[in-house]
């Protein structure tokens, strides 16, 4: 089954994020915060079409001062997602490393290895370490 797709153009006007569909259905919304644009527009379009938000796609277009910034915004959003995933992966690996080495090395030595304070290593040692299955592998983050 194919789901319908709607193109949403986002601009910035008078301190608000303005989002409008440019095809299919006439939908628009004003948002104070950028993170509210996607869920807000999904809700507006769902209300107008009667479709649940998971039954349609949104294509985004970003225009600022009549310049198309879509590629840069989408690249930044992907880079941000990747950075968050990598940070989560690093935190998991670090927690496992601390859990594994705690008792084999002093917490000061572990701190030196990781570039942390010994107090932070002590906090990590008292926390729960992630299981191996919870540690995300980095291979899928290589940009094309």
Key attributes of the depicted protein:
TTHA1013/TTHA0281-like; 144 residues; 5 strands; 2 domains; alpha+beta; elongated; 43% helix; five-stranded mixed beta sheet
* Elements, N to C (H/E): EEEHEEHHH
In order across it, which strands form the biggest sheet?
3-2-1-4-5
Q: CATH first level of the largest domain: which class?
A: Alpha Beta
Give the total of domains: 2
- Could you say which structural class the secondary elements and strand pairing correspond to? alpha+beta
The chain-level mean pLDDT equals 89
Q: Which percent bin holds the helix content? A: 40-55%
Note the beta-strand portion: 15-25%
Organism: Amycolatopsis pretoriensis
Protein name: Sigma-70, region 4
Give an overview of the whole structure.
It comes from Amycolatopsis pretoriensis. This is Sigma-70, region 4. By secondary structure, the protein is an alpha+beta fold. It folds into two domains: 5-65, TTHA1013/TTHA0281-like (2-Layer Sandwich); 73-126, no CATH class. The protein is 43% helix and 20% strand. Strands 3-2-1-4-5 form a five-stranded mixed beta sheet. Strand 1 (5-13) and strand 2 (16-21) form a beta hairpin. The longest helix has 32 residues, at 70-101. Mean pLDDT is 89; it is low at 128-134.
